[in-house]
Amino acid sequence: MARAADPEGRRTVGFITKCDALQAGDELSVLRIAKNEVEKLTHSWFAVKNRSTQEIADGVTIDERHKYEKAFFATQSPWVELKKDRVGTHALREFLGGLLYNHIRSEFPEVVKDIEKLAASTQKELELLGPARQTTADQRRFLTRLANAYQREVSNALSGNYDAELDGNSPMKLRMHVSKLSDRFAESMARSGHAKIFQDVHGGIDEQFARSSGDVGDIMDWIRGLYQESRGAELPGTVNPRVLENMFRQQSSPWKGVATIYIERIIATIQNFNESAFEQMVPDEDLKHKLKQGFRTILMDERGGILQTVNHYFAENLSAIREERVLARLEAAGFEDGDRFDMARVIKRFHLTNEDQAVNDIHDILKAYYKVAMKRFTDNVVLQVTERHLLGMDGPVKSLSPDLIADFEDSDLTDIAGENFSTSSARNELAVRLERFQRALEIARQAAI
After folding, report:
1. Where are the domains of the chain?
2. pLDDT tens digits for range 320-374
3. If one looks up domain 141-420 in CATH, what number appears?
């Protein structure tokens, strides 16, 4: 059995018992073993004499046993041939004590290192749980520290100051994700924000508004139909302002859907950031769940709120479109820059019915207004809703702040940060374990082996 565990015999100490009970003629073979001539061991062999069954029955004491053993190895042949430090339980005990001491001495530095590692890991676990949160003062102090740490994470995430160890698509890269979503939103608005495709001054599709799907019907027919349906008491060729309002509402009807998708994605991005931040900062699962749930509620309350405003460059854009239309008609009539032309011919070429003129004007006004309004709407959704409202100082992404914690009632603190039984028990267990390791290290330093 010992050979299986120690094939080379480097760690095994052999000892022979009941040397006095051997049969006549067996002594020499056993003696050779005791002299380490048969089964050779690095630490060699010991010979001892235990109490016999009769001696035990006769009440021989331990002290008497030691005397009998010493006398036996000093007088009985062939055992007198063995070295004195290799016979008797006293010699065996001294040798084993020295062997153990040397082993401890050689392994002691590693043992100390193991204890230090265990103490450090226990200390880290204890620190991850944070300080005790039994009282409201403890809870307020803990949440305030957490809020300060969270604000630093938000500031870094919004400024693009990312941890070098974050992977490329980490939720903690908040600014990167928001910028990508905002760019995609602007592209979606330009591509899909209009219900009808505007025409250029030559009557073809304006490439700025071209798309491969959706309603590609003739916008002029649509304008003419709405114009005819809305005629009132106004003079021929003039436009009822309500017609323009109605057309703009219909033409911009996809905006809400495009913007809603964008806002939903921004909110989901903020929620992913919050949850990732809490995963890193809050080891307490119960507290982590409460904080995540609180932020989900805040974000749900922030949905909507999209702004629509008018741009003061509207008149400029409308004037430019009208000028382009005039130049296009001149080119169609065969005139070029610097040509002399017959005024009557120009007037004849430019003559339109009142209805045609009204339809053209409505198209140009609607197009000019739409371009500016769409850009302004896009900018406002990004700047007012995303940047100022959702990511701003009072936005949900920054709602966990020291000021918020300061306003909490005691009951709020207990509901959010109060420790449950399992957390409290884990902290106590870790504290006891850490104390044991620290005491062991102190003993090791005093031993100085």
Report:
1. 2-87, 102-132+425-447, 141-420
2. 544 555 445 445 545 454 444 444 444 444 445 566 777 777 787 888 878 888 8
3. 1.20.120
